[in-house]
Amino acid sequence: MQWTTLIIVVSILAALVAACFALALVPLRLELFVKGQGEVGKFWAVGLGLRVSFVTISFAAAQGVDSVLQLHLFGLKVWRRSPAGGLPAPEEESKVSLDELLAKARRLQRETERWFDLDSMLVFLVDLRHHVRLKRCNGRLSYATPDVAITGMIAGALYTLAGLLLPFGDCRIEPQWEDVAKASGQFDAACKVYPGRMVLSAIAFVFKNIKLRQRTCPIVPAPP
Q1: Element (H or E) spanning 39, and its range?
Q2: What phi, psi does 44 have (nearest 5°)?
Q3: pLDDT tens digit string along 173-220?
Q4: What are the residue boundaries of the structural domains of the chain, listed by start?
Q5: pTM listed for this prediction
Q6: Those residues with Cβ within 8 angstroms of residue 164's Cβ, 6 or more apart along the chain or in another chain
């Protein structure tokens, strides 16, 4: 009986180790589709689809109609949520001031700095890009702002980004020189993600950088 139990435990541990190595070596294919348009003060609509392996999540929302969230497995719809009454009207939404958001951000920063160095964490998050392989990236964005100078500044930044993504597809930027705030466009991308490697990197980062005790300044004796 003891040998049987030992064999079962060893088999389970071996399966867990094999699963960890498989997650580290085998990537997941992730595909993202986004389409939307809108104009400030008039209307807006957005649709989003996210596919990971055989799982697909889709979301659609527009001004004045019910939003829809769906889950598909192997192309079959298995779950759908459409809240009654649609999205809340602007007067029904809870208003959060900018000061409250800044206060929450500062509290989160202080709590994070208790355990980790922010610069090291930023470097780690940027390095996670090595575990993502972009395969396809196509998009089109047409937009306008009431300020021509802001429209031009945004166009310059987006043209630079589109140039960096050129090896993976075609991203077109179409600024409109109109005195309105509006945008319309679509975007689709596909990439391979290595979640196991990300988890292992996160574990290594935590063990190497976590602050187990608060650092205190050494006490320097006063000169005689």
Answers
A1: strand 28-39
A2: -160, 155
A3: 999 998 888 999 999 999 998 887 888 888 888 888 887 755 444 444
A4: 26-84+99-209
A5: 0.63
A6: none
Determine how many CB atoms are found less than 10 A away from the CB of residue 196: 19
What is residue 126's three-state secondary structure?
helix
CA gap 166, 188 in Å, rounded = 14
Q: Quick one: tokens of 15? A: 């399966």
Separation of alpha carbons 101 and 74, rounded Å: 40
Interior CA angle at 196 toward 208 and 78, to 5°? 135
Q: Are 204 and 198 contacting, i.e. CB atoms less than 8 angstroms apart?
A: no
Q: Measured between alpha carbons, how far is 103 from 47 in angstroms, rounded to an integer? A: 32
Structure token digits, residue 70: 């769906």
User: Which residue's structure tokens are 């008039």?
Assistant: 42
Residue positions counted in the chain: 224
128 neighbors 162 (Cβ within 8 angstroms) = no
SS3 track for 168-197:
HCCEEEEECCCCCCEEEEEEEEEEEECHHH
Residue 68 has which token pair?
Answer: 């829809």
Beta bridge pairs of residue 44: 38
Amino acid at residue number 151:
T
